[in-house]
Amino acid sequence: MNIKAPKGTKDIVPSEINDWYNIENAAKEVFTKADFKEIRTPIFEDTALFERGVGDTTDIVNKEMYTFIKSDRSLTLRPENTAGVVRAYLEHNMFRESAPVKLWYKGPMFRYERPQAGRQRQFHQVGVEMFGIQDASADAECIMLAVDFLNKLGLNDLTVEINSLGCNVCRKEYKERLKDAIAPFLDGLCDDCKSRYEKNPLRILDCKNEECNKLFDKYNLKESVSGIKLCDECSSHYEKLKKYLNELNIKYEENTFLVRGLDYYTKTVFEIKSNSLGSQNAVCGGGRYDGLVETLGGPHTPAVGFAMGMERLKALLPSIEADKITFFVVSDNQLEAVKLTSKLRHKGYSCEYDYNSRKFAKQIEKASKTAKYAVIIGEDEIKNNYYTVKNLSDSTQEKMSFDELCML
Which residue, among 147, 400, 89, 393, has the nearest Cα to 286 in the 3D structure? Predict the structure, then answer.
């Protein structure tokens, strides 16, 4: 029986694990310095959480969720983590804490979609959520944090795009203009766009269907509807954001048709793109979602956050070699090899020995591939109570006591 990993999933094997540690450790360092605390939520949640939180006009809810029934309860593998973090924020009464409440996370997400470069059905995200701050400084902090994290990884060829979706009042008039502009060619659009036309016409702008985009260009859709006309409050918020970004020396571009793929966004939305990934070049997406906490049963709470796909980040970074252990014990006396290995491990060193007690040449060969030092225990070493230590990087060797060995 030839059983393989399901389509759209990949094993993370030991030769790759340092690449993942690199991303995770950078996230922990950068986010912790900004006083974000790590949170770990369940991999599956009540299906209603995503239906209410993510939105029933999104592809995620309509097409991509892995949902199953257990004991008459509908459960879903998380397709994104913002809704789960908000659920935890409410369940654990974090809204009673003094604002801001700043959380970060990492872990696997699940969406049923066509696998492609940097996108899998089980994929991994790292992200942050910040609750309780209405001012645009929170939005600026999230964008700054995302840029700092990417720079920490060595990614500097970035484009930051921003937009404001305004509030429900701002969007109402824009949605009507959008529907009027789309009506003449609505019949030619895909079924998803036709459905969105009534439920949430803004989402039409996020359509990836090639034929739809040809019609958008043919009818000059984006030029004809221009951008959202923001109310005074939303306009002030957006202008403040740009002022903060300017003061932080974060270069950005305004994209009045950036809408993101989730229904809960309000006011600020942003994407960070890498110029090294081709057409699928977005490495970070986020924005403000001031109504989501309330939608899920909590008090009105302003919030903002972002998420990044770790597979895409990994694709942009050079591979890191697997770590070598410190010591490999080479001996034909298995008891002595086991004893020294145990002593070195208890001293805090990584150490291994040859379980098959093969010839010295074979053991040295294995040691040279996996360790920094070979510690040789032969008859003379046992008789005279010392170890012969070979530096495997330059082949020099010397006699050492156990205490000297522990000083390497």
Answer: 147
